[in-house]
Structure formats: C-alpha cells, structure tokens
Amino acid sequence: MLFFKFPGAPIVLTKPHLLGADYYRQFINGLSPDPEKHDIEVLVEPHTGTPLTAASRVQFNQFLRAMPPVTITENLVQSFVPIMWVDEGIELNDELVDYIWTSLTQILIILDAVHWTLFAVGLTLFVAMLIVLKGLTKLDTRCLIKIYHA
C-alpha cells in the first residue's frame, strides 16, 4: 500500500562512489571517489571522430527521505544508499586501430600536407607573376620612350 501512496521509484543514478555529489557523500562512510576509475570517459580519434575507447560507469542509489505518514522515518536525513554500480566499456583492438590509422587518418594527414603545399606553390607563383608583370611594364615604357625619341 505504501508504494501506491508514494508513486515513482526512489532510485537515483549517479557516478560511482557519488563522484561529483559531495553533499550526499558526506552522509555515507567508506566512499572514495576517484575520477580515473569512476568517471565517464570517451577517447575519440581527432581527425575522423571515431571513438577508440569508451567507459560508462553508473551507480544505482536508493533515495532516502522522511515520509510524514510513516513515523519511523521522521529522523531520517535526506540521503542516498548505494545499491550497486555498473561499469560498461568498449575498446577497439589493435587491428582496428591500425586500420583506422592507415586507411583514414594517414590519408587525411597527407591530404592536409598536399593542401598547404599547393597553397604555398600558388602563392609563390602569384608573387612571381606580379614581379614579372611589374618588370614587363618597366620594359614597355623604356621601349616606348626609345621609339618616340627615334
């Protein structure tokens, strides 16, 4: 009957050992959060956006609070009781990482180098063309002066 009067499951998901929930962790002894072990992490290859490793760690907690109709709970401090935590992860094997490196990343790096090389060659040719055109206009005016004075 009590469950029907207070609908909704009093389950709260947090990071393991209540990482990042300092206020609630103060009411529970024995928790030692470590971001290296208890945080959610994803390692992504920067050129292609391919996830190389991922780890999702979640803790299920029972939410405790005083419920006025139940007199035995009137002295309860609003807190969590850890029930369990789940660690799920995936990591690409070396064969797949090598495939991504050789077939995608290496090609993108080469294309980027070709892009900047072509840009530099084009800029050099443009500057050389300006120098040649400036030299030609000087030659033309000298030739014209000789023709008119002759």
From TrEMBL:
One Pfam family per UniProt: CD36
One cellular component (GO) term of this entry: cytoplasm
A biological-process GO annotation: sensory perception of smell
Main location per the UniProt record: membrane
Subcellular location: Cell membrane
Molecular function GO terms recorded: scavenger receptor activity
Statement: the UniProt record of this protein carries the keyword Protein biosynthesis: no
Repeat listed as a keyword: no
Keyword list, A-Z: Cell membrane, Disulfide bond, Glycoprotein, Membrane, Olfaction, Receptor, Sensory transduction, Transmembrane, Transmembrane helix
Protein task: Plays an olfactory role that is not restricted to pheromone sensitivity.
Family: Belongs to the CD36 family.
The protein's name in its UniProt record: Sensory neuron membrane protein 2
